[in-house]
Amino acid sequence: MISLLRHVTFSASSFSRSVSLLFLLAFLAGCSSTKSVPQGDYLYIGGDIKVTSPVPETNTKALEPELNAAIRPQPNTSFLGMRPKLWIYNAMGGNRERKGIANWIKTRLGEPPVLLSEAHPDRVQANMINRLYNNGYFSPTLAHTLDTTSKRKMATVHYEATVGRQYTIQQIQFPQGNDSLSMAIRETEPQSLLKVNDPYNLEKLIAERLRVNEILKEKGFFFFDESYLIYHVDSTLNNKVNIYVRIKDTAPDKALIPYRYQQVSIYTDFSLGDTLGDSEAPVQYRDYKYYPDEETFKAKTILNAVFVENGDLYSRKHHLQTVNRLMDLGTFKFAEVRFTPLDSVGLSGRLNADILLTQAKKKSIRAEVQTVQKSNGYAGPGITVSFRNRNALRGAELLLINLVGSFESQISGDSARSGLTSTEVGADAEMHVPRIISPFNIRIASSMYQPRTRFALGFRFINRKEFFQQNSFNFEYGYSWRQYATTEIQLNPVQVQYSRLMNPTPAFEKELAQRPFLARAFDQQLIIGGNYRLVYNTLGIAGRKHQLYISPGLDFSGGLWGLFYRVKNKRPADPENPNTFRGQALSQYAKFDLETRYYFNLTEKLVLATRLLGGYGLPYGNSSVLPYIKQYGIGGPNSIRAFPARSLGPGVYNPRALQEPGNEVSQSFSYFDQTGDIRLEANAEFRFPLMDPYLKGAVFADAGNIWLVNEDPTRPGGKFSGNFMSELAIGAGAGLRVDVQFFVIRVDLAYPLRDPTYPNGGRPKSGLFGTGVLNLAIGYPF
User: What is the DSSP letter of 360?
Assistant: First the structure.
């Protein structure tokens, strides 16, 4: 007991000394803060505002943040009463000229003192009065007092504001004339942002002008501008205002009338410096003049992306929609609509519209030698030869043909898995058609972006020398379109995939015989179904503090065909007696995926990036297990980085505990075992610059696992249960990124904090650095 009391007394004494030392440092830092303050001036340490009103219902507290934002300048950066940046500035010589490293520290890490002479309270008061007027508080009174201490040479400015009753809107009157512009403005009145009895607010008045201008631009007023609207405000009433919306007398005549298209012409081979009058004779297609002839582009196809027609009123939406869709075709480098007003007698209010298109290079071929790195841990050299035709059928169709080949070895921290080789060759072709091709007449006219129909056909041959060979074929037919800049929809109603296992080695066949679940996953697979994905993405919007990416997806197979088969054969589906298509068993499953990413940009260069991945695959009918190509794996450089690729799960299953000693095939085969039907993964990464602009650093943490839907006796502990949180693998680490804009080289060193295969969520005990996993990858993990 005495020993314990001594311990407590000692700790209290230490704490007291620490607090005293902290206050001493704060005092010394405060003293040194004024070292660079000129004689007769003060260090400005901030200002505050207090708002009062004789009117009890006035919300003065709501006004204080608005007025506080007008206080200038910002004082020196402080932390717990200390000003470290100012202290560094003074320590490095203050106002004296310095060179070399001292000057770099002073200017980059330090901060000069903010002086009272820079505060200008009278100017701040004027800005506050403007803000109060803008919010309907007319005739306020403002005053300020200085709080200075000559001993410490510091000063604070205290502002005081007194406001009366806030003015509200009593009447709103739009232009009363019978001219076309006045009548068009009056027609917008029901949707007005200005409402009777609302408080007077300048920002709302500005927004109302913009709203009216947007509507007028859709009604043909091509030359109108919001600056031609003016407000007359009568504030002589008792805390009420009447607002009169008027058209400026100085507005030009052409801004007062709506415009229609007289002639729309399309130039599909325009170059900068061309003179339109020198073009060849046009093809007359419907009401359009089309240059040149249809040997280059079919007029019908191009006009699917054109939303301006002869006789139509000018519409800004249709104007921008035309430009966006033409650029979205991918066939043109530039697209512009040039307008020419016609001033001839009888043609007042008429425009000619010339659509000028500059073609991109039609065909290209490219060969790339690259390092292939896959989520399954295989890495090695690869080559891709790509052919691209941007106008394959004279309708802006994009044709892509890729020939691929690679030789890969599996790189893993597990010696049993290292050295496995895989050879892959294949070819695929895609055709992107810039319209919806379907049995129904579908035209998505409201979108600013061009919808597409996609056809894809591919073949792959994989030779994993130690195990098997595999052929796979795939075909997809579907659509993609963006309703908004941040939202894309991908719908593939037809998805056919067929894979066939060939020439398995005896050792591989033996392992499959011992693992019936995995054997069924490797059976000949026929997938007939479809998939759907929605992408919401704000990552491309610059300047946003919060950026979000959300992508849910649905993948299914065998539903409609299985229903047809059951009705035809009058019997339910059964994995032992499966439904077939031309003698081939049909895979039946439904699979849902969700990926979310959230980026919090603390500053322009400091980013907290997070990701959450979830997936659930449900085999049914014919299938008791998902096809192998549809199963989830976890771990690796783009997943949980503290564990090699596909070295986790399912659940707490530990293949090492079941392996026969000395059986190298069985040990390396565990790679195929560690897949599942359910995935849950979360990642967080803090990114920061090290040496601008190319070298960046990161610290990160990852967690997750995979599980099985159905019990597999050969993989004990793999089924999903209510204890899944205790079965999560957790890792953390740090990394470097060499970011040269067009590519990123990434090195991450990660350590496992929890391994679900160890008792009570432990981890390997092989030393401080012995359990680390070094990941070398291209690109950011998310």
Answer: P
Whole-angstrom distance, CA of residue 777 vs CA of residue 769: 21
| 8 Å CB contact between 116 and 155 | yes
The whole-angstrom separation of Cα 659 and Cα 679 is: 25
Task: Kindly report the backbone phi and psi dihedral angles of residue 74, in degrees, each rounded to the nearest multiple of 5, phi listed first.
Answer: -80, 135
Measured in degrees and rounded to the nearest 5, phi and psi for residue 228 equal -80, -5
* Mean pLDDT confidence for 736-744: 84
* 3-class secondary structure, 2: helix
Contact call for residues 458 and 401 (beta carbons, < 8 A):
no
Apex 608 CA angle, 607 and 609, nearest 5 = 105
Which pair of structure tokens corresponds to residue 261?
């298209």
By the 8 A CB rule, do 737 and 695 touch? yes
Average pLDDT, the chain: 84
Which tokens is 442 given? 């579908």
Run of H or E residues at 228: none
Q: Which residues pair with 525 in a beta bridge?
A: 499
Query: Looking at the predicted structure, is the pLDDT value of residue 665 above 60?
Result: no
Q: Looking at residue 438, what DSSP letter applies? A: S
The C-alpha atoms of residue 763 and residue 773 are separated, in whole angstroms, by 13
Integer Cα distance of 774 and 646 in angstroms: 15
Tokens (6 digits) for 494: 């037809």
| Under 8 Å between Cβ of 596 and 535 | no
Looking at residue 730, its pLDDT comes to 94
469 torsion bin: left (phi>0), alpha (psi -120 to 50), beta (else) = beta
d(CA 512, CA 496): 26
